[in-house]
Each structure stands twice: as C-alpha cells, then as structure tokens.
Write a structure and sequence with these properties.
Blueprint (H helix, E strand, L loop, with lengths): L1 E3 L2 E7 L5 E9 L12 E3 L5 E3 L8 E8 L2 E8 L2 E6 L2 E7 L3 E8 L2 E7 L4 E6 L5 E6 L2 E7 L5 E6 L6 E7 L1
Antiparallel strand pairs: 1-2, 2-3, 4-5, 5-10, 6-7, 7-8, 8-9, 9-12, 10-11, 11-16, 12-15, 13-14, 13-16
Length: about 170
C-alpha cells in the first residue's frame, strides 16, 4: 500500500517482492472548500462564491457585475457581508467562505465554511416562513422578521456545510 496525498494505492506483489499489478485506488473526499481569494466570483452554474475568513484585515470589492446586478462584498476573519444593488443579502459573524450561493423566488442554497461556528443573516421575503436544512438535516421552520431578515446558526465540523432555505 502506498499513500499519495489523500489517496491510497493498494497493489499486489509476489513472494519475491515483484509487482504483479495495481488492485485499486481509494481516495478520501476533500470536503473542505477553499476561500475565495478574489473575494467574489461568478461560477459556471450561475451561482456566486464569495468571502475569505483567512484575512486579518477587512477587504472589500464593489461593482462586481453578475446576472445584471451589481454586488459588493466585505470580508475578513470577523465578518463576511454581501450586498446586491445596494441592498443587504448575506452576513456572517465571524467571517466565512460561501460557495455556489444561489437565490430563487423560493429561497436560497449555498455551501459555507469558517474557522468557527457562525451566525448567518439572510435577507428574504418579509413575513414569509422558510424550511431550513443544514447538510440535509431538518433544522426547523422559521419566519422572517418585519425587515425580511432570517438568522440561522451553522456549526462547522471541519467540513463545508450545505445550507438550504426554502419557502414553506
């Protein structure tokens, strides 16, 4: 058996230690996402990725065009915030990295990771109820406040968390 990074190659040898052929390769999936070094980017599937919780000083990028909208991101280890056309969209305390952030008429989905558990605030439809799932597990139903904000907590276990917030 030989280890190459996160993969193991299992092979067979004869009694004389002569290689007789590779049996199989087994790899551990890497579920840790990378931070968004460019602060915000458009993905091929039409979603957005943003945030870099590894930064010690606040960094921001304005006037990022995506899907006909203008986005602004502020991020560092203490907070990550996203605005669309001057309006609030997402905020996490402490800072996070968000990948494949997609909004629809019925909700929002994204993968998120950080160094420590985070409180995430989303701007959604005012007075609506949403079913929340984190990593496929039901986290309950919540209603937005009068301003349309919904606050959820996400615990990180060393892996990215998949968050789904769908109108109930």
């Amino acid at each position: 058996m030989v280890r190459t990074g996160k993969c193991y190659i299992i092979y067979s040898v004869s009694e004389n230690n002569i290689f007789t052929g590779k049996l199989y390769k087994r790899c551990k999936e890497d579920t840790k996402m990378s931070v968004v070094k460019e602060l915000i980017r458009s993905e091929k599937d039409g979603s957005l990725s943003f945030g870099n919780y590894e930064l010690d000083t606040k960094s921001k990028l304005s006037d990022f065009e995506h899907g006909g909208d203008s986005y602004k991101v502020k991020t560092f280890n203490e907070i990550t915030k996203l605005e669309r056309n001057g309006s609030f969209v997402y905020e996490s305390v402490p800072g996070t990295a968000v990948n494949n952030f997609k909004t629809t008429d019925t909700g929002v989905t994204f993968s998120v990771e950080g160094k420590e558990d985070a409180q995430i605030t989303l701007e959604l439809e005012e007075g609506a109820s949403y079913d929340i799932k984190v990593n496929g597990k039901d986290a309950g139903t919540m209603a937005t406040n009068m301003g349309g904000k919904l606050v959820i907590s996400v615990e990180f276990t060393g892996e990215a968390a998949l968050v789904e917030v769908i109108k109930a």
